[in-house]
Each structure stands twice: as C-alpha cells, then as structure tokens.
Design brief:
This protein is an alpha/beta fold and 252 residues long. The chain contains five helices and eleven strands. It has helices at 87-94, 128-136, 181-188, 204-217, 237-251, and strands spanning 7-18, 21-27, 42-48, 57-66, 70-76, 100-107, 118-123, 144-150, 165-171, 196-203, 225-231. A six-stranded antiparallel β-barrel has the order 1-2-5-4-3-6. Strands 9-8-7-10-11 form a five-stranded parallel sheet. The longest helix is centred in the last third of the chain and has 15 residues, at 237-251. It is globular and about 55 Å long.
C-alpha cells in the first residue's frame, strides 16, 4: 500500500511537563480521519522540505495522548546550556501557537503482550512517552517493574500502574554517558520463574547492553523481548538509522 501523504497540523498548545520534557498538542482540520487508537505509535515530523540537493529533515516521535482535538507529542529538552538543540526540539521550543507542520504516520505502537507472569521495562526519557502508554494499558493484575532514566528528580511523571508494578527512577544529569546504568539496576531486580516479557528502548549503547542481558544471559527470544534504540550519542536521526540497520544485520 502507498504511504499516505503527510497531514498539515497546527500547534495548539505547549506545556512544560517537567524540567526536561515539553509537550506539544498538534491538531486542527488536518487531523480529520486520523486513525483512532494510535497512542504509543509514532509520527514523522517534517521539519524542512530540503531542496537544492538537501534531504528533508524528518524526526520520529511517539504519540503520548490522542484526543478528538489533537495529538500530544513529548520532546526531551536537555543540554541547552552547552549544545545547540536539534531541529525538532528547536521547533518545539520556538514555534508560535498556530504554526503548522507536516506530520506523517501513524506508525504502529509496540505494546506489551497480554498474559505474561512478569513484565520488565527499561528506557530513558526519549522512551518515556511509549513506556507510559504501555504501562497505563496493563491489566490491574499485571506484575513487574520498570527502570527509567531521567535527568533530574523533578522529571518523574505520574504513571498509573497496577498495584503489583514498581517504577524505579534513575537520575542521570548527562544522558547517554553511562550505558550500563539501566542494566545495573535491572540486574539488581533479580529474576523470577514464569513467563517474562522484556521491553527496552533507550540510547544505542544502553540498548545493546540490555539486549545482551536479556537475550544471552536470560534466554529471551523474539516472542519475549522487544528492543530498540531511539537515539545514539553524537548522531542525528539519519545517521542513527544507518547504525541501527548495520547493528541489526550483524545480530541477525
């Protein structure tokens, strides 16, 4: 099937969710007919059209909330005192209410499967929107734990989880500089008998460390493990996509 043309959506509101997370609501007439049930899926934000030999600038973001009037998209904001923000964060911070942007998608979500004895979830702030959607969709009797890396204590978010589910917040002010932070905490949770499903999305090196742990040490196959790198230290999304493809080819 042909990929649908991007929609033109308008910026309806901007909310500072935590010190390092900004939420934009995108909507307007262009939202008509957007597929329902797309929370946790992703959209492609077209930040420039390219031209003169340059490729369009496109960035991928998770749909945190979906309502009748708009889509909520969360942006991680960090390092502004030292680094120039990328094109998506720049747009998120500087666009005026009413400004428009072309949005492709939605792409499919990666939810947690049903009827597992235990769920283990790991990710950093870039994965927090997807993690939040997944955890809030769990049945009331679900059990497990999530380890989530944030940049400041105040970056914790309220996530509605079952009583038997624990969230461990790990503060790392310098995202990406400790690839085994999540792994060390995950190891410390121990292992239990029964059917375990693990879900991981984080920086590239962190993802690989957790993937090796779950695949090699714990023996989880593809039906019990989802892993993805959402970004890579020092690379933009286009270069990261090449790195991901090479890594997948090497792992098989």
């Amino acid at each position: 099937m042909a990929r649908p043309e991007p929609r033109t959506l308008a910026l309806l509101s901007r909310t500072q969710v935590t010190p390092h997370m900004v939420r934009l609501r995108l909507g307007g007439p262009g939202l008509a007919g957007f597929p329902q049930g797309s929370e946790g899926g992703y959209v492609k934000l077209r930040l420039s059209e390219g031209g003169d030999g340059a490729k369009p600038v496109v960035r991928t973001y998770t749909i945190r909330h979906q309502g009748e009037d708009g889509l909520d998209i969360d942006f991680v904001v960090h390092g502004l005192d030292h680094d120039t923000p990328g094109p998506a964060v720049s747009w998120a911070l500087n666009a005026a209410i009413g400004d428009t942007i072309k949005v492709g998608g939605p792409g499919p979500a990666k939810p947690l499967p049903e009827a597992m004895d235990r769920y283990l979830v790991a990710g950093d702030m870039t994965a927090l929107p997807a993690i939040s959607v997944n955890l809030e969709s769990l049945p009331a009797d679900a059990r497990g734990a999530a380890v989530i890396e944030i940049q400041h204590e105040d970056d914790r978010q309220d996530i509605a989880v079952p009583q038997g589910f624990a969230i461990h917040w790990l503060v790392n002010p310098h995202a990406g500089n400790d690839p085994e932070l999540l792994l060390r905490t995950m190891r410390g949770l121990g292992w239990q008998d029964g059917e375990t499903y693990a879900w991981v999305a984080a920086e590239f090196s962190t993802m690989r460390a957790l993937r090796d742990y779950f695949r090699i040490e714990r023996g989880l196959g593809p039906d019990r493990l989802y892993v993805s790198s959402y970004w890579k230290q020092g690379e933009d999304e286009d270069n990261h996509r090449v790195t991901k493809r090479a890594d997948l080819d090497a792992v098989g």
